[in-house]
Write a structure and sequence with these properties.
Helices cover 47% and strands 11% of the residues. It is built from 26 helices and 18 strands. It binds adenosine-5'-triphosphate. It is found in: Cytoplasm, Cytoskeleton.
Length: 939
């Protein structure tokens, strides 16, 4: 077992102290069966030997004749039960049957057998063990009602020499593989007992389960030989008896007496194994080693790597039991404390780990009805394997205080308490483990196993520190002895245990006794291992040895165990015990976590679903936004186009519009400023002339209003005021130069509009491109009604590009138009100058009704036809030619631009119309001319 290597390996030869130890409380005077019922033995009062009773003689009690006689006498007298046997003995008897038998030969005598009603005959017929520690042997032991070795009368046993234990029954080496081999053998036996126990409708209550054993440490000076008859002492391990022939001598008989050759495994098997198993079943159990310093307490409890002691073997058995009990689940937690100088220290806490560690929080003892007395705060570690548990304990051992003393090079200076808490619960059938609605496991049973290595009693040392330690140790041991001496079934008025005189027991006088209170007052199974040593040296410490033996005898006599299987607790029930049941708490936590997991999984699924939906919605939203944007773009583009076309239409159809004097309805023109009013009027005129609508009625408007002084010439225009405006305008354009300037201004304004329009379109185009890119990066989108109008973004872009190009071309055209108009202006001015210089008549003449527009365009004052000279016509023709030339230039220019380009019909139409208008405007025969109304291309 690898883990055992971590255990301390005491290898310190030491001699037992030779001085006297603090005296144990005086044991009750030896009582024989005749004077004390407790000491009653089925073997007859006359021969019954009690450990502390003075031997009547040095004659060995192991006389076969005597024993036989006595056994027969006992058998005949009371049928196996001693007359007047006390209740206490009877109670113990009841419990014995429930306490499993040790896996050793049935060679041990037991008063218990007789007390339990088994006839002395059966005791005398103790089966001889035929084989070593086998399951079969043990089973037959039990089935034959062979009495338990435990908890007999406690006052000693008279044993026939003929019934001496077979030396092979508990060979020292038989437990060499205790952890692996013999443990399992025993376990099998106990499992049978457990099964019987489980099947019972009403479990038996185990009472009076106290084992008291004495172990004799080999004397270093004797070369390892058992000092069987060492001076005044004799040890008979088979009879579980130690005899002393000195003063206060007698035969001391216990449940177990281990001679110097018996090893730790043997000690464990006999003294602790069953108790450990019972703890695993739900009983509280306490094992402690008591004895003078250097006599082998630590050696017995901890052992060595080659010979593990009670603690490691118990740990091995605990896990063996768990393995063998598949129908239950277990949780183990361990704590380790020491009582040093009446202070409790946690050996597992971090601060106990090293010298540099800070001060430890003071640990106090508390008591509650469920847990009894317990130390708090104390670190508890949950362990899952023997190795882990052994490591934890080894860590505590390392922190324990030891010092070199006169009798022990590594003397334990403190009482050390390992406490293993065992929680167990019926296992939920595997098929139902994941179904929370399925079988709910039973409650959790909590039991504790306390393994205590007491500090050794010792004489006063020279060293002050050792003396102080020794004083505390001795005081606590003395208190322990006092309490054990005073133990009885008596209770005081408050129901607390009291001694026989009704006095309360001084548990509170020391931390050790306070901590042991639950065990000593009957709450747990108890196994006490007392260690002694005989030496051949002059410094023999007979007094201390006798004290230890008396202590053991009193413990055997007085400690009564009412240990019951712990009740099953439910973690949800609240209360301290409930909350401390980790198994239940963990189960509930696991359940809660599973619930949380389920909820989270559901939540997660919902969230994912939601997220998916959101994503889908987001995508849909994005798609929608894109669509809206596209629609907006398309609408904007269309609007712009409509507006643009409207402007074009306005230009081309303005004649008809202006006829009704609704310029404002044409938007673009309505925005013109007041300063543009002249231009507007001119446009109207041009339109009218171009379209030839109400030509005759309109013509006089401008003409007559401007040029005729006759009242009749102030002719009617349906929209009266308009006519007045025209009149004003015409007055301004009297020289025709202003008209051209206004045309230029109008064209420039139009140019500005066009530029703005272009920039708008470019902006839109950019947006459309971005949108197109993003849409393409997202992936194909479902067709929409908007997109269906523009199924191909590139087509849209292309169209826009085309439009922009066309607009640019229009701009160019306009520039050219401007240039042409300027040129026309120059020509006209030239013509006017020429006319003035060559034909003054013409300057004042006019051709009434011939070309009102001409006059309107500033070609001189219009006179009546009668006053107009003939020569004037030719001059006018010259001017007209020049104007025609300009018109032609414009026409060519426009045509040239138009050639090779695809124009929409409406554009062509507007151009044609505008060209006509221009031509008409420049034609002296035309009614009027307004180039601003007729941009060649307005796209
Ligand atoms: N049964 C035994 N067989 C061999 N060696 C033993 C036995 N018992 C004790 N020893 C040895 O005797 C020495 C003292 O033993 P141990 O330390 O266990 O005594 P102790 O009772 O615990 O003393 P203390 O009370 O001072 O701590 C150790 O070296 C140990 O190995």
């Amino acid at each position: 077992m690898a883990s055992t290597s971590t255990l301390p390996q005491p290898a310190r030869p030491g001699n037992p102290p030779s001085g006297s130890l603090p005296p144990l409380p005086n044991p009750k005077p030896r009582k024989t069966a005749s004077d004390t019922p407790r000491a009653a033995s089925p073997y007859g009062p006359s021969k019954l030997r009690t450990p502390s009773s003075p031997r009547p003689s040095l004659k060995s009690p192991l006389s076969s004749s005597n024993s036989t006689t006595n056994l027969n006498a006992a058998r005949s007298s009371s049928g196996g039960r001693p007359p007047g046997s006390p209740d206490r003995s009877l109670r113990r008897t009841i419990s014995i049957a429930s306490f499993p038998q040790p896996p050793k030969a049935g060679s041990r005598p037991s008063t218990a057998s007789s007390l339990s009603g088994i006839q002395a005959a059966s005791a005398s017929m103790r089966p001889k063990r035929s084989s070593r520690l086998s399951t079969g042997t043990t089973s037959s032991y039990r089935s034959s009602k062979t009495p338990s070795l435990l908890n007999g009368s406690g006052e000693g046993k008279f044993i026939s020499s003929g019934d001496a234990r077979d030396p092979d029954a508990s060979p020292g080496h038989s437990r060499s593989s205790s952890a692996q081999g013999s443990c399992s053998t025993s376990a099998t036996t106990f499992e049978d007992a457990d099964d019987a126990h489980r099947s019972s409708a009403k479990p038996k209550e185990i009472k009076g389960n106290v084992i008291v054993s004495v172990r004799v440490r080999p004397d270093n000076n004797s070369g390892g030989e058992t000092p069987r008859n060492h001076g005044e002492w004799s040890v008979d391990s088979r009879q579980s008896m130690i005899s002393y022939r000195g003063k206060e001598g007698g035969d001391y008989i216990y449940d177990n007496v281990f001679n110097t050759q018996e090893n730790n495994a043997r000690v464990y098997d006999s003294a602790a194994k069953r108790l450990v198993r019972r703890v695993m079943e739900g009983y509280h159990g306490t094992v402690f080693a008591y004895g003078m310093t250097g006599t082998g307490k630590t050696f017995s409890m901890q052992g060595t790597a080659t010979s593990p002691g009670v603690i490691p073997l118990a740990i091995t058995d605990i896990f063996s039991f768990i393995r063998e009990t598949p129908h239950r689940e277990f949780l183990l937690r361990v704590s380790y404390l020491e009582i040093y100088n009446e202070k409790i220290h946690d050996l597992l806490s971090a601060s106990a780990a090293g010298p540099g560690a800070g001060p430890q929080e003071e640990i106090k003892l508390r008591e509650d009805s469920k847990r009894g007395v317990y130390a708090t705060p104390l670190k508890e570690e949950i362990v899952q394997s023997p190795t882990q548990l052994l490591r934890v304990i080894a860590r505590g051992d390392h922190a324990r205080r030891t010092s070199s003393t006169q009798f022990n090079a590594r003397s334990s200076r403190s009482h050390a308490v390992v406490q293993i808490v065992v929680e167990s619960r019926e296992r939920v059938p595997p098929g139902n483990q994941d179904k929370r609605s399925a079988i709910t496991p039973g409650g959790v049973r909590v039991s504790t196993l306390s393994l205590i290595d007491l500090a050794g009693s010792e004489r006063a040392a020279d060293d002050k520190e050792r003396r102080t330690e020794g004083a505390h140790i001795n005081k606590s041991l003395l208190t322990l002895g006092n309490i054990i001496s005073g133990l009885s079934d008596n209770k005081d008025k408050q129901g607390n245990p009291s001694d026989r005189d009704g006095r309360h027991l001084p548990y509170r006088d020391s931390k050790l006794t306070r901590l042991l209170q639950p065990a000593l007052s009957g709450g747990s199974l108890v196994s006490i291992l007392c260690t002694i040593q005989f030496t051949s040296s002059i410094n023999s410490h007979t007094g201390e040895t006798l004290n230890t033996m008396k202590f053991a005898a009193r413990a055997k006599n007085n400690i009564v165990s009412h240990a019951k299987k712990a009740e099953e607790a439910y973690g949800g029930g609240g209360g301290d015990s409930g909350s401390r049941v980790l198994l239940e708490r963990y189960r509930m936590e696991i359940q809660a976590l599973r619930g949380q997991l389920d909820t989270q999984a559901k939540y997660q699924a919902e969230k994912e679903l939601k997220w998916d939906e959101q994503q889908y919605e987001k995508e849909a939203q994005a798609r929608h936004e894109e669509q809206v944007l596209e629609m907006q773009l398309a609408r904007t583009a269309l609007k712009e186009r409509i507006e643009h076309l409207n402007r074009l239409i306005l230009s081309s159809k303005s004649t008809g519009v202006n006829t009704h004097n609704s310029l404002s309805a044409f938007g673009r023109l309505s925005r013109m400023s007041a300063t543009d009013s002249g231009t507007r009027s001119l446009r109207s005129s041009a339109s009218q002339s171009t379209l030839g609508v109400a030509h005759s009625s309109i013509r006089p408007i401008s003409f007559m209003s401007v040029n005729s002084s006759e009242p009749s010439s102030t002719l009617h225009y349906p929209g009266g005021s308009f006519g007045n405006e025209d009149e004003e305008d015409l007055g301004e354009f009297g020289d025709g130069k202003a008209s051209l300037q206004r045309q230029v201004a109008a064209l420039q304004a139009d140019l500005g509009d066009k530029n703005r329009y272009i920039s708008t379109l470019e902006r839109r185009l950019l947006q459309a491109r971005r949108s197109s890119h993003s849409r393409m990066s997202v992936g194909p989108k479902p067709p929409s009604s908007t997109i269906s109008e523009y199924p191909d973004a590139s087509a849209l872009i292309h169209e826009k590009d085309m439009e922009i190009n066309e607009l640019r071309l229009q701009l160019d055209d306009k520039d050219r138009m401007l240039a042409a108009l300027r040129s026309a202006t120059r020509h006209r001015d030239l013509a006017a100058v020429t006319n003035e210089s060559q034909s003054p008549d013409l300057r004042g003449g006019s051709v009434a009704g011939d070309s009102p527009a001409l006059s309107g365009n500033g070609f001189g004052k219009i006179e009546s036809p009668s006053k107009r000279p003939l020569s004037g016509r030719s001059e006018r023709d010259d001017g007209g030619k020049k104007m025609d030339e300009v018109s032609r230039m414009l026409e060519e220019m426009i045509q040239g631009r138009g050639d090779g380009q695809e124009r929409r019909s409406i554009h062509s139409e507007s151009r044609r119309v505008s060209t006509s208008a221009q031509v008409a405007g420049l034609n002296p025969n035309a009614a009027s001319w307004d180039p601003t109304l007729s941009p060649p291309v307005q796209e």
